[in-house]
Specification:
This protein is an alpha/beta fold. The chain has one domain: 2,3-Dihydroxybiphenyl 1,2-Dioxygenase, domain 1. It contains two helices and eight strands. GO terms for molecular function: dioxygenase activity. Residues 6-125 form the VOC domain. InterPro entries: Glyas_Bleomycin-R_OHBP_Dase, Glyas_Fos-R_dOase_dom, VOC_core.
Length: 132
């Protein structure tokens, strides 16, 4: 298990700092720092840095293999995130669905797409032993 003194870090490209800040703040992520070439967020307790790099934007994003996100261990938190995304009209790449239905690894999931075509997955496993 991860100790609280460790934070996962992910760096991704973005095409516009203003659009990026708007999206991630609507998602509930706190803006930690802003520079001329990047913004850093508290992304559900981890660090996501969006570097201004409009030439590196994926114009045809696909869910697999390139995405990132959060796996919730509490159903209420998953539902709250989904409700927030819907209420704030965040763009869905994949509407909420159930994967591997009837199997031990069954989980609820949805994907959002940020303004720079980065794909974010949010999921919840009823059986928390299947998280890893």
């Amino acid at each position: 298990m991860r100790d609280k003194n460790k934070v996962f870090h992910l760096a991704i490209p973005c095409k516009s700092l203003d659009e990026t800040v708007d999206f991630y703040e609507k998602l509930g992520c706190q803006l930690a720092r802003r520079y001329d070439d990047r913004v850093t967020f508290n992304f559900f307790g981890d660090q996501v840095v969006c570097h201004l790099n409009p030439d590196k934007i994926d114009t045809k994003p696909k869910m697999y293999p390139r995405h990132f996100g959060i796996t919730f261990t509490k159903k209420e938190e998953f539902d709250q995130c989904l409700t927030l995304a819907e209420e704030r009209c965040l763009p869905f790449f994949q509407e909420p669905m159930m994967r591997f239905e009837g199997r031990q690894e069954e989980h609820e999931t949805f994907f959002l797409i940020d303004p720079s075509n980065n794909l974010l997955e949010f999921k919840y496993y009823q059986d928390t032993s299947m998280v890893y």
